[in-house]
Structure formats: C-alpha cells, structure tokens
Amino acid sequence: MKLNTPRNIAEIIPYPPGKPQDELEREYGISESIKLASNENSWGPSPRAVEAITDMLTGLHRYPDGSSYYLTQAIADWVEAEPEQIVLGNGSNEVIEFLVKAFVLAGDEVITSHPSFLMYQKFVQVRGGKNTVIELNQLEHDLEAIIQATTEKTRLIFLDNPNNPCATLISKKHFQDFLLQLPETVIVVLDEAYIDFVNPEQRIDTLDLINNNSGIPAVVALRTFSKAFGLAGLRIGFGIMHADIASLLHRVRQPFNINLPAQIGALAALRDKTHYDLTMQGTKDGLAWLTERVRALGCTPYPSHTNFFLIDVCGDATKLYEAMLYKGVIVRSMQAYGFPNFIRITIGTEQENTRFIAALQECLADLGYV
Ligand SMILES: Cc1ncc(COP(=O)(O)O)c(C=O)c1O
C-alpha cells in the first residue's frame, strides 16, 4: 500500500478519546467509579426523553425526517427564532464542521483561543485552512488580541462562551464593542454549549445580534442537548443564525444527519422542565458547596459560569488525577491545556460531590500538596 496522505490530514493530532469507564475500572482495580471529567449532566438524561425513545424503537426501520421538522419547530419556539434560522447537527460539533465546510477554503484563516474547545481547529485543518490561535488573557478570551489578529483572510472566529475549560464568560458590553471593531466579512461563532448555566442577566442577546446585523459581522450561536438536557450520548445540537447562513449550511449536510431517536428524544427533553430545573438547581447548589469545601482543603477553586470549574491543587495535577483514579473518582488534569497544577471537575450529584471531596482530601494529604 502506498498512501498519498495530504499533509494537512497527516498533521492532525487525533482528539484524545479517553478510556471507557469500565476499562478504567478494570485497569485500576476499582468499581463504582464516578466520572466528573467530561462536563456531562450528572442527573442523567431527561426521563421523558428516555420514555419517548423507548416508545419509538420499533420504528427504527424507517429513515428519519430529513428536515427534523417537529424538533426544528420546537427549538425555534424555545429560542424565539424562526425555523429557517435553525440548523441541527449530530452534536453541536457537527454544526461547527458545517460552518468550516461552508466558509473555509485552503489558505483561509480561522481564529480560535487557547485553551478552548479543541474541535474548531481540527475541522479547519481538514479543510487546509490556517488556524490563528490566541492565548486567553487571565483565563478569558482576549478580544483585543483577536481584533488585532483579524485579516482580510479571516472567515470565522470561534469563541466558546462560557469557555471550556476556564468557565469564564464574555461580558455583553465587551462583546458589543468587539463586534463593532471587526470587518463585516467575518462570522463570529459564539459556542454557547453551557449557556443554560449562565445567569440570564449576563447572557449576550445573541438572537438580537443575529437579527439586527447592520454594521456588524454575522453572529452564529451554537447550542447543545449534551449538557443541560443530559443527552450527550444521543448526539444532538444546533446552531441559530441568519437564514441565509442556515441555507448554506443545509447544502453541506447529509440529508439524514439527525437520527430518529435524537429527534424524538430531544423534543421530549425540551418539554421536560422538571429535569431541566433539577439540573440547574443541583448545579448551582453543587458549585457553591464544592467551592467552599475545596477552599477549606487549601486549594484554589476558580469562579465558574457553568457546570464545571478549575481547581489549583498546588501540585502536579496529573499525579493527583492518577491518585484520584485509584479512589474511583475520574477528574480531568489540565496539564495538556497548559495548566500543570490545575484539574477541572464537573459538578456532580450531592453524593458524587461528597465522594469527590473525601477523595481529594486523602489524595492531597498522600501527595503532600497542602
Ligand atoms: C465548548 C463546547 N462546545 C461544544 C461541545 C460539544 O458539544 P456536542 O456534544 O453538542 O457536540 C463541548 C463539549 O464538551 C464543549 O465543551
């Protein structure tokens, strides 16, 4: 075999997949581990979604509705947009891919931050585009540096808001000023995967910016059912944008990109206010409780607008991650993100949070960090 692998593809570093939880348990000789590593919903999927999916399983021999008519309609009602402004994806990941496919050709530039969600850059590499990567400034997107880095070749700017992994938020005023200083030819993508956890008063009015775009660049908002709605395994997310942009994205998507269980499950989850509220309250209470306990142990918790937060553990985070694994608590070391002393944890249920704190206390003492 002789492969003519394009250089831009060969250079892509694969997304770090992480081991299945069962496999980790076998490897570390543990059981009943808890996973606080991927910012998922610790309260599980919406029970109404589970019921709706169970009821539709005998219909799996049919192709799904290629327009996801009912789900699109329901999402449009929920976010107060028109159905023509909504594009669904196999996770919001896929909408990121559509944006890059539709707007980036070889040599075009895309601006992202570091650290930030990893997938933006990978899709750009696939297209042979150029990633311009701007370091966060004090854990926040450096909007001034992004303006400076924007050129006539810049097609897209990706901003995860709140940022993953730092859990910081762009202020409404700062974002308005930012837009006014950019050329109208770029598209600013606000990845709002965690927006449900943000205090409504602090949220950027993305729909207003999408609809009233005179003199400013186009804004696209990305949302997901993977976090607040607890459907990460179903793979369903969406973008809200000007109808003209949506029309272009529909041209680059497969006709049946949203599978049948995802259409049915997401629709039911949207109507499950009880589960949504439980998740919101549990996250808020859990964050407050964990922050206090982490501080009491001598570590530094960082403020968060989401369902996860950073902790400075005052020592090698990867060693702590390993030690926590032996206690059956899976967290994320931030070493690879450039923070060698930080871990990131997802807010768990009350029981999970209690276990996390007990394990952290023991591991910190064992490692002599505090
Ligand atoms: C900032 C950000 N955007 C997007 C995603 C992916 O969302 P989805 O599961 O909808 O593809 C994640 C997942 O962790 C994320 O952190």
Give a quick rundown of the structure.
This protein is α/β, with parallel strands linked by helices.
Structure description:
It is a single chain. The chain contains 14 helices and 13 strands. It is α/β, with parallel strands linked by helices and about 375 residues long. It is globular and about 55 Å long. Helix 4 packs parallel to helix 11 and helix 13 packs across helix 14. The longest helix is centred in the C-terminal third of the chain and has 24 residues. It has a seven-stranded mixed sheet with strand order 2-8-7-6-5-3-4, with helices on both faces. It starts with 6 loop residues before the first helix and ends with a helix. It has two domains: about 120 residues, Aspartate Aminotransferase, domain 1, CATH 3.90.1150.10; about 220 residues, Type I PLP-dependent aspartate aminotransferase-like (Major domain) (Aspartate Aminotransferase, domain 2, 3-Layer(aba) Sandwich), CATH 3.40.640. Bound molecules: pyridoxal-5'-phosphate. Pyridoxal-5'-phosphate binds next to helix 5.
